[in-house]
């Protein structure tokens, strides 16, 4: 997520203070991604250094220092909005890496690793779905974030199912080592969304 560009977008609506930007950022992102006020001011300083925003002439560097976007900042924001993200190479996804690593480890049943993570993702989907049912009708931004998260989790579950099926076919055809049983510790994590 580009905090830099999100702040430029908020400033394109008119001049704002740092604390105001933090509050509006959190509101616009469905309050799912909290933003540290220090990160806001650090980002604003970089934007100002790069000529994308300007601050008012207040000698005070505190919370009442206002910022506004420059024409260069508007050009940068427009370019960012119109440029698709680079998905040309796969991201370093921790889940994919875990499955690939488990595949080569002696004594680890890769299918068990897949199923452990699949169960966790299903639990997360259920939690997000409950949040959507409870709160999304009141907050469009939050509903959009929840939809994005549900689609992301669904795609990860589908990938795990596909990977598990491919691994089983490879084992049946003698192309992959058969899994060896080695119990993995059971872990449960909680989803870190809105309180």
Give an overview of the whole structure:
The protein is mainly alpha-helical. The protein folds into 2 domains: 3-82, Orthogonal Bundle (Arc Repressor Mutant, subunit A); 94-172. The chain has 7 helices and 3 strands, in the order αβααββαααα. Strands 1-3-2 form a 3-stranded antiparallel β-sheet. The longest helix is centred in the last third of the chain and has 33 residues, at 140-172. It is elongated and about 70 Å long. The two termini are 21 Å apart. The model is unreliable at 187-195 (pLDDT under 50).
Can you summarize this structure?
The protein is mainly α and 195 residues long.
* CATH top level assignment of the largest domain: Mainly Alpha
Span of the ends, CA to CA: 21 Å
Reported for the largest beta sheet, the result is: 3 strands, antiparallel
Give the number of helices: 7
Give the strand tally. 3
Categorize the overall geometry.
elongated
What's the average pLDDT? Answer: 84
CATH architecture of the largest domain: Orthogonal Bundle
The radius of gyration over CA amounts to 23 Å
SSE order, as H and E? Answer: HEHHEEHHHH
């Amino acid at each position: 997520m580009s905090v830099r560009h999100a702040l430029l977008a908020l400033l394109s609506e008119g001049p704002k203070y740092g604390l105001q930007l933090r509050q509006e950022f959190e509101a616009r992102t469905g309050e799912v991604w909290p933003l540290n006020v220090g990160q806001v001011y650090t980002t604003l300083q970089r934007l100002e250094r790069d000529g994308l925003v300007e601050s008012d002439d207040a000698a005070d560097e505190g919370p009442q220092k206002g910022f506004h976007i420059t024409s260069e900042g508007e050009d940068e924001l427009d370019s960012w909005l119109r440029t698709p993200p680079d998905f040309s190479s796969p991201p370093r996804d921790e889940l994919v890496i875990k499955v690939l690593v488990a595949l080569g480890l002696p004594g680890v049943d890769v299918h068990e690793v897949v199923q452990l993570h699949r169960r966790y993702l299903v639990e997360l989907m259920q939690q997000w779905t409950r949040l959507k049912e409870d709160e999304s009708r009141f907050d469009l931004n939050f509903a959009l974030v929840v939809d994005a998260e549900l689609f992301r989790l669904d795609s990860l579950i589908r990938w795990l199912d596909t990977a598990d099926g491919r691994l089983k076919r490879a084992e049946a055809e003698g192309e992959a080592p058969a899994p060896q049983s080695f119990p993995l510790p059971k872990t449960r994590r909680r989803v870190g969304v809105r309180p």
